[in-house]
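Weekly puzzle thread! Below is a chain. First person to post its structure in C-alpha cell form gets bragging rights.
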Amino acid sequence: MARAARPQIRVSDADRHRVLDALRDGLTDGRLTHDTFVHRAEATLLARTGDDLRGLVADLPKPWRLGAAATALYRRVRGSAEHWQRGFPLMLRLPSGSQRRFTIGRELACDMTLADETVSRWHASLHRDGDGWLLDDLGSTNGTWLNGWRVTTASRVAAGDLVSFGAVTFVLAAGRR
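Winning reply:
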C-alpha cells in the first residue's frame, strides 16, 4: 500500500533564520567551505518547504539540547544559545526625560552609534508613545529583531525585552527617573 504524501508546509522567515544560523555555525566550525556556505545560504533564501531546508543542514551536527532545569533558567534570562557562548547581552536603557525620538545606527549623527558592520547607518528608532516606547526598523539591511521576531512595523517594547540591530544584541532596561 502506498504511503500518503505529507502536506508541504511553506517555511517562515524564522525557519530560514534558524537554518542560516546553523550554516553560519558550520562555516565558523570549519565544517563548510565559504563557497558551500554561500551556495546553501542562497538556497535557504529560495526554499519553499521544510524538506528544502532540512536538506541544507542534514550533514551538519544537531545542536545540543538543554536539560529541563537549564531550559527554565535559559528562558528566564531570555537569551539565545549564542548568548550563552558569548556572555549576556549588554543593557540598553530606554531614554528618559522629554526626548520623543531616539535613533540607532552606525552614523555619528544617531543618538546611539554602534560601530558594527552589520548595523546600517540609520538602522532603527525608538519613539515615545504615551508612557511607553515603540521600536521601528528604518529599512536596515540586516534587520531589527525584538525577542527573536523581525520588526516589520512599529512594535511596543518594555524593560526586559531582547533587541538586536544586525548582530548587536541588547536587553532593554527602564530609563532613569
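Puzzle host: Confirmed. Bonus trivia for everyone else. The helical segments are 13-28, 34-46, 50-57, 68-77, 81-86.
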